[in-house]
Amino acid sequence: MRILVCISHVPDTTSKITFSEDKTTFNTTGLQYIINPYDEIALSKALALVEGGKGTVTVITVGEPVTEPTLRKALAIGADDAIRINAYPQDAWFVANQLTAYVQDKEIDLILTGRESIDYNSAQVASYLGELLHLPSVAIAKKVELQGNRATVEREIEGGKEVMDIPLPLVIGTAEGVAEARIPNMRGIMSARTKPLTVIEPIEVPQLGRITYYEAPVPRGSVKLIDASEPEKLVELLHQEARVI
Amino acid sequence: MSVLVFVEHTEGQFKKSAYEVVSYAKAIAKHLHQPLTALAIGNITTEELQRLGRYGASKILHVNHHKLASFINQGYASVIAHTVREEGVEFMVLSNSFSGKDLAPRLAAKLQAGLASNVVALPEIDGDQLTVKTTAFSGKAFAYITLHSPVKVLAVNANTIESKEDPTTTNIVALEPAAIDMADFKAMIKELIQTTDKVALPEAEIVVSGGRGLKGPENWNIIEDLAEALGAAVACSKPVSDAGWRPHSEHVGQTGITISPKLYFAVGISGAIQHLAGVSSSKVIVVINKDPEAPFFKVADYGIVGDAFELVPKLTAAVKAYKNK
Ligand SMILES: Cc1cc2nc3c(=O)[nH]c(=O)nc-3n(C[C@H](O)[C@H](O)[C@H](O)COP(=O)(O)OP(=O)(O)OC[C@H]3O[C@@H](n4cnc5c(N)ncnc54)[C@H](O)[C@@H]3O)c2cc1C
Ligand SMILES: Nc1ncnc2c1ncn2[C@@H]1O[C@H](COP(=O)(O)O)[C@@H](O)[C@H]1O
Question: Where is the Electron transfer flavoprotein alpha/beta-subunit N-terminal domain (chain B) (predicted)?
Fold first, then answer.
């Protein structure tokens, strides 16, 4: 069994997001980068599925050289080898095409992504991969189990879930519930340094769209405090002033 | 320049978000002086289809085929892409729901179309370019995306615009799906489990959310009672679902669901940056916390400092009293 886990290198969840003067780029100085939390779930699941010598786990990212520590961390958690496609990840369409170019001539049984990257949150890569590779896909999965060459996947839907039975190979975007994120141990960290990390060059991808500018959310006015003895006052304000009930 | 909207339903009943995307697409169509076409797939009555006309769809394409009785993303994407080509569609609108996320990238790839997901406002259309506001960084920022491909796909967030009646005469057309490709049906649905018959969290207009301040799952009745009185959905912070007090599907925040209801009630939640990321685009935020220094008060519109166990039942009673008036 060969599993590929797609890793996105994202600003740490506590990051304050600010922009350049002209609002066309976001400031990366001083930001700490991490493995996208959902991709950590995907990686942990992949490792659990191959446990006991049942296969190998490759991690892959589309990113510039600065993303290598993130890949090394994935190797420390337990991936067998890493691939970096040497390009700035412009958008999900670009990323999915790069990943497709890599996967196309390989025998891969399962491709795992996170449900979304916490920076652009587009939740697009998994379904793009499914389409580009002509494979079934589940964009947001809450549970994944394998029996031989079939997968049982719980897909999230509004107000419930759907249990699906899908043959491998397939693409799954993992959400919480699929696995607990693993923490690298000392042996993992030591061995990560010598595990293979291969750099490959990107392909050309026609651009269909782009981010033209960013905007910060409008800050809220100061909070209006209501005395704990008058909850009916809050109801009145929500009705008359805020007009939301 | 035509506009097509894909509408989702649950067992033949259009979802709330379906009417919202129809209103959204109708606004684009009006701007372009074009009629609006809607596409629905599955077993839906004529009466239900007709409702789309009330929201401004003048042509309703209905595909009903036994292979397409339930949602299979590949099969549905093929039907929708085929319709886009047949109808010469330039603007394709759908909802950014769980199924929408399964569909939109597939459609965009089939059509070599630019795709904007997490759309939260109407687009600016300038010649053959479109620019639209989307959320990014889990609600910590907005990104404006410009699409310049011949076909453009927009996946619109719930509660972006209110659905609005705009009746037109409608023409319902039953469509045979073009060649069904068996390769699209490798995935099979074994079981569909509806865990709630109440309003689903991502679509809800009002959300009541509980945090670690509630001490344990046995206390969730006060949250549920308030939600019930308000007709709201229930949510929670991450530690609450991590501890198994509530299911993961209720967890909101940066690593959970991002929501943008009209009204968000945070009870016993401190307001950590990762929590705020998922809820900060709510229109109005109410915070109930016993600690006046809780960070959540800094980003709230209304707040009450006090003990949730005393306060929430009183608030529920006040809501009921107001509703009965
Ligand atoms: C990578 C990462 C991702 C994360 N993602 C998320 C996410 O998506 N969503 C999320 O929510 N968190 C997330 N977190 C966790 C986040 O940092 C906070 O730990 C979490 O939001 C705190 O939850 P809480 O507010 O329920 O609990 P606490 O911080 O413990 O706050 C409890 C609050 O309840 C109040 N309280 C106590 N008793 C009462 C009472 N009787 N009446 C009224 N108020 C009372 C207290 O004053 C306190 O403010 C993430 C963290 C990390 C590191
Ligand atoms: N630059 C990237 N390189 C590799 N995988 C990525 C990259 N960006 C996103 N992904 C994967 O795609 C998933 C969804 O990302 P997105 O579509 O951007 O929300 C992430 O959780 C990753 O698994």
Answer: 3-189
Range of the domain at A186: 2-217
- A90: phi then psi, degrees, rounded to nearest 5: -55, -50
Min CA distance, A85 vs chain B (Å)? 21
In contact, B141 and B254? CB cutoff 8 Å: no
A230 falls within a domain: no
**Sign of the four-CA dihedral B257, B262, B268, B271:** positive
For chain A, say whether B118 makes contact (Cβ under 8 Å): yes
Q: Which atom of ligand 1 is nearest to the CA of A13?
A: 1
| Neighboring chain B residues of A175 at a CB cutoff of 8 Å | 248
Q: Which residue has the tokens 């699929």?
A: A178
Helices (H), chain B: 16-31, 46-54, 73-87, 98-111, 220-230, 238-242, 273-279, 308-324
Ligand approaching nearest to the C-alpha of A129: 2
Phi-psi map region of B103: left, alpha, beta (phi>0 left; psi -120 to 50 alpha): alpha
**CATH number for A147:** 3.40.50.620
Distance CA B51, CA B112 (A): 32
Q: Which residues in A lie closer than 8 A to residue B116 (C-beta atoms)? A: 209
End-to-end CA distance of chain B: 49
Among chain A residues, CA nearest to B230: A245
- Mean of the pLDDT values across residues A138-162? 95
Tally of structural domains, chain A: 1
> What amino acid occupies position B80?
I
In a domain, A237, yes or no: no
The phi, psi pair for A198, rounded to 5°, reads: -100, 135
Within a domain: A151: yes
Does A182 map to a domain? yes
- The predicted-structure confidence for B159-175, as pLDDT tens digits, reads as follows 999 999 999 999 999 99
Counting ligands in written order, the one closest to the CA of A32 is 1
> How many Å apart are CA B156 and CA B93, to the nearest integer?
7
Say how far apart CA A111 and CA A3 lie, in whole Å. Answer: 6
pLDDT tens per residue across span B248-273 = 999 999 988 889 999 999 999 999 99
DSSP state of A19: B
Handedness of CA A37, A117, B10, B196 (dihedral sign): positive
Q: Which atom of ligand 1 is nearest to the CA of B296?
A: 49
Q: Let me know the angle formed at the C-alpha of A120 by A115 and A125, rounded to the nearest 5 degrees.
A: 45
Chain B, residues 124-163, CB within 8 A of chain A, namely: 131, 133, 135-149, 152
CB B167 within 8 A of CB A238: no
The overall pTM is greater than 0.90? yes
Q: If you count residue pairs, one on A and one on B, with CB atoms under 8 Å apart, how many are there?
A: 274
Q: Does the interface predicted TM-score (ipTM) exceed 0.90?
A: yes
**What are the φ and ψ backbone dihedral angles of A71, each rounded to 5 degrees?**
-65, -40
> Which residue from A minimizes the CA distance to B113?
A208
Structure tokens at A149: 């060459």
DSSP character at residue B123:
P
Measured between beta carbons, which residues in chain B are less than 8 angstroms from residue A119? Answer: 136-137
Per-residue model confidence (pLDDT) at position B197: 67
Structure confidence at residue B194 (pLDDT): 81
